[in-house]
Amino acid sequence: MDSNPVNGIPPSVLADLAREDQGPKTIGLIATFLALAFIAVCLRFVARIRLGIPIGWEDYFILVSMTCSILASACQIMQVHHGFGKHQVFVDLPSTILALKYLYFGILCYGISFTFIKISILTQYERIFSVKATRIPIYIVMGISVAGGIAALFTFMFACVPVDAFWNVLKQPEARCIDLEK
């Protein structure tokens, strides 16, 4: 029995599959939303500076989030460069391994970014609502958000044992990995 996945696929279908590439659409979406987020963060700082409002902790937290978002987006673009968006049969093993490495680090960056967005919003609420009765729930939600972010980060970071089995498909048969799709 031949293990080549393209055997049995008619040449005309194979040619159609080879032309399909969602990579350019992916890069277009990444660039669009990253640009919008970057503009929003820049406008936030311009408004604060022009109005004479001091830069607060929430602004620093959003900068950390934006930096991690840029890193996550760069990882997504590198995934496309290494074959994401194409049918797997047309992506060689070294490219697949590199794309999965970028996926791994991109997800970590995204998780950190998402946690810092929450912290930024909650820090802004804490500044706006000066009554102690409203601040206590904000601190509780912030603690839950930070704990959840740390738990998610470590859960994903060690989703496979050994860790590199996440991207090294040759190690996956012997590795123990959490089924992240459930």
Main attributes of the structure:
elongated, mainly alpha, 5 helices, 182 residues, two-stranded antiparallel sheet
Which bin fits the share of residues in helices?
Answer: 55-70%
Give a short account of the largest sheet. 2 strands, antiparallel
Distance between the termini: 32 Å
Strand content: under 5%
Number of strands: 2
Our count of domains comes out at 1
Mean pLDDT: 91
Q: Element order, helices and strands?
A: HHHHHEE
Strand order within the widest beta sheet: 1-2
Tally of alpha and pi helices: 5
Structural class: mainly alpha
Transmembrane segments: 27-47, 59-79, 99-117, 138-159
Domain Rhodopsin: 43-181
Keywords: Membrane, Transmembrane, Transmembrane helix
Pfam families: Fung_rhodopsin
Q: Would you give an account of this structure?
A:
By secondary structure, the protein is mainly α. It has one domain. It is built from five helices and two strands, in the order αααααββ. Helix 2 packs antiparallel against helix 3, helix 3 packs antiparallel against helix 4 (93-128) and helix 4 (93-128) runs antiparallel to helix 5. The mean pLDDT is 91. It is found in: Membrane. Belongs to the SAT4 family. Keywords: Membrane, Transmembrane, Transmembrane helix. This is Rhodopsin domain-containing protein. Residues 43-181 form the Rhodopsin domain.
Task: Offer a quick outline of the entry.
The protein is mostly helical and 182 residues long. It contains five helices and two strands, in the order αααααββ. The chain is elongated, with a radius of gyration of 21 Å.
